[in-house]
Specification:
Layout: E1 4-7, H1 11-23, E2 29-32, H2 35-42, E3 49-52, E4 55-56, E5 59-60, H3 62-70, E6 75-79, E7 96-99, H4 104-116
Parallel strand pairs: 1-2, 1-3, 3-6, 6-7
Antiparallel strand pairs: 4-5
C-alpha cells in the first residue's frame, strides 16, 4: 500500500484529507503540520506521494518541495492561494496544483494521478 505524506497545518483540512483518503482505500498516510517536522521525517522515510500546503505555521516549506523534487516523489501543491508559489520556490512548479477547497473527487483524482501517472486505471493494471 502506498504511503502518502500529508503536510497541512490546519487540523480540519488535514482531517478532511485523511477522511477522503481512507474512503478510497488509501489509508496509509502520515500527517505533519510543519515544514521542520516534514524535513525530519523525510530524512528517514520516502512516501509514495505527498499532499503539501506550501505555507505552514513555520513558513513556506521550500526545503520539503526541494526534497520531493530531488528524490522524484510526486506531490500535490494543495493551496488556497491564487498567486503562484513557484515564484517563491521553483520546486513547487514540479508538483501538481490543486486549489483549496477541492471536492473529494478532485482530491482523489489528483492523488491517483500522483501515484499512478496520468491514467488512474494503471493502479489495477487495466
Amino acid at each position: 500500500m502506498p504511503t502518502i505524506l500529508i503536510l497541512e497545518d490546519e487540523p480540519f483540512i488535514a482531517l478532511d484529507i485523511e477522511t477522503v483518503l481512507e474512503g478510497c482505500g488509501l489509508g496509509s498516510f502520515v500527517t505533519l503540520s510543519t515544514g521542520w517536522a516534514a524535513v525530519s521525517w523525510l530524512k528517514e522515510n520516502s512516501p509514495s506521494a505527498a499532499i503539501v500546503d506550501p505555507r505552514l505555521s513555520d513558513g513556506v516549506c521550500t526545503a520539503v518541495a526541494r526534497h520531493l523534487v530531488d528524490y522524484d516523489i510526486p506531490f500535490i501543491v494543495y493551496s488556497g492561494e491564487t498567486e503562484s508559489v513557484s515564484e517563491l520556490e521553483p520546486a513547487f512548479a514540479e508538483g501538481q496544483h490543486l486549489m483549496k477547497p477541492a471536492s473529494p473527487e478532485q482530491l482523489v483524482e489528483a492523488v491517483e494521478t500522483a501515484l499512478y501517472g496520468c491514467d488512474p486505471r494503471r493502479k489495477s493494471g487495466t
